[in-house]
Amino acid sequence: MVAGAPYHGRMSQSPPLSYRAAGVDIDAGNALVRRIAPLAARTATPGVMRGIGGFGALFDLGQTGFRDPLLVSTTDGVGTKLKLAIAWDGHDRIGIDLVAMSVNDLVVQGATPLFFLDYFATGRLDVDVAARVVAGIARGCEEAGAALVGGETAEMPGMYADGDYDLAGFAVGAVERGAVVDGRGIRPGDVVLGLASSGPHANGYSLVRKVLEGIAAPESVTLAGRPLPESLLAPTRIYVRPLLAALGQHEILGLAHITGGGLIENLPRCLPAGTAARLDGRAWPVPEPFPWLARSGGIAPLEMLRTFNCGIGMAAVARPEVAGPLAATLTGLGERVFRLGEVIATAADEPPHVTFSALPPALVDAAA
To answer: Can you tell me the distance from the alpha carbon of 14 to that of 58, in angstroms, rounded to the nearest whole number?
Structure first.
């Protein structure tokens, strides 16, 4: 500074600024890493070469036993279900949803999940809450057989309201080149099976929350013997292990993870041109809370079916002679399986779609 020139720097006697004073607590972040490292270690699988804490996770594909593998990658979040998890103290469950939404997308292509990474962002890091979320992520990874190899915790003051956080998940899997499930072999006459969901999973919660705005004390509502929060926060079912086991025994021509858009939007994604799926809505029970949501919100049956899974979280297409044994195998592995309908022929230039010979009675009655 030139002698005698005015100084416009910081002359205050207040303490010097720090990252912590700006709202980012590095010590809290380190404490979280120490808390979650043992959780991640429990998910380790053959191929994992480093633990939590490095700049990147190393994975040796040669240790997995694949001969000619293709890698499959997915990413997803849990949507505004997070708002209910935060409001109703569901931090332990929401991490399972995060894993499920990605690994279920892997398995529909026949892929085995290899590893998973998470992204947790918040305005102010609450180590206890974050540790509960990551514990759920680790449980989901264990259930799916995927290794939790790392992730990112971002503390961003001013980006989120107090107590809020956001999640994203990333999964990588592998499938033998000749074992990809892509639906190309599906033809008219094939059977569509459905695997039961555990609830709305992690889709349609903006509409769920809109319905809840008109309900006084939703925490006191009981459906089929369960409190409403328990029904709405039930974690997404992870179908990986039973489907991989079934794929080892039966030819499954196509699989569809029934997420946002329901059966109407997701099942056509595995159908080839010139085909459609004709489903019977009477073929499976539509469990609570779906009829309750329809009644409480005045939601039409088709709107329900194109927003929620309405009780079916995964669909599988198989030849008629395979459908029965496949259903028996999946039932033996703990799944509830329903014969939803069949594949029909359409015009070659008509996009694959879903039609219903009858709508689910529970949804029709709820709309009456």
So the answer is: 46
Residue of 79, 131, 86 lying closest to 229 (CA atoms): 86
CATH classification of the domain holding 132: 3.30.1330.10
Q: Of 86, 88, 97, 95, whose CA–CA distance to 136 is shortest?
A: 95
- pTM of the predicted structure, to 2 decimals: 0.92
Q: How many domains does the chain have?
A: 2
Q: Write down the residue that tokens 């720090």 correspond to.
A: 18
Residue 30 φ/ψ, nearest 5 degrees: -65, -40
Q: Which domain holds residue 101?
A: 26-179
pLDDT tens digits, 177-191 = 999 999 999 999 999
* Confidence (pLDDT) at 31: 81
Read off the pLDDT of residues 19-50 as tens digits, 9 standing for 90 and up: 677 777 777 778 888 888 888 888 899 999 87
CA 357-295-193 angle, to 5 degrees, is 35
pLDDT at 5: 45
Query: CB-hemisphere CA count at 13 Å for 182?
Result: 9
Strands (E) across the chain are located at 69-76, 112-122, 147-155, 165-176, 191-196, 222-223, 226-227, 254-257, 275-280, 312-318, 337-345, 354-358
The CATH number for 220's domain is 3.90.650.10
In this predicted model, what pLDDT tens digit does every residue of 325-337 receive, in sequence order?
999 999 999 999 9
Radius of gyration of the chain (CA): 24
Residue after which a domain boundary falls, among 179, 203, 230: 179
